[in-house]
């Protein structure tokens, strides 16, 4: 059974009691540059730190990566590699890059232009949990690890890429925390 990402948010009613403030399915964001991936931007907190209570701000899901102290909660569905087509023609690249910049500002900045390996690094501490399927995490050293449902990853700003080498989609949940990279 495929998971349909759903977001349930609690809050406070007029009497100060806890209420369900929201309960909705979250639609995916896609872009040609994402090679069949579906991004579900679930929630985020402002840079500098989260607050809770009746006056807490609503979600901040963009830019894609949080600044220092901010957070992002997202799910990413990775298609099987066998479902992917080749890279776009160079004539389309500017249009494709513009599309992802519009839909997911900040995401493309983590990748080197012209590099089609998917290798990237971010200034975030990321907690990842495999929910469906299998996914391979590759590091720039060549180290790789296979993730199956229940596998948890702590990604500490290292260069990495994700690969779905199976015949079914893989779904990962990520919590990204904006971090400082020591000089």
Automatic annotation (TrEMBL):
One Pfam family in the UniProt entry: Cupin_2
Domain Cupin type-2: 111-175
Transmembrane segments: none
Species per Swiss-Prot/TrEMBL record: Sphaerisporangium dianthi
PANTHER family named among the record's database cross-references: CUPIN TYPE-2 DOMAIN-CONTAINING PROTEIN (PTHR36156:SF2), SLR2101 PROTEIN (PTHR36156)
Protein name: Cupin domain-containing protein
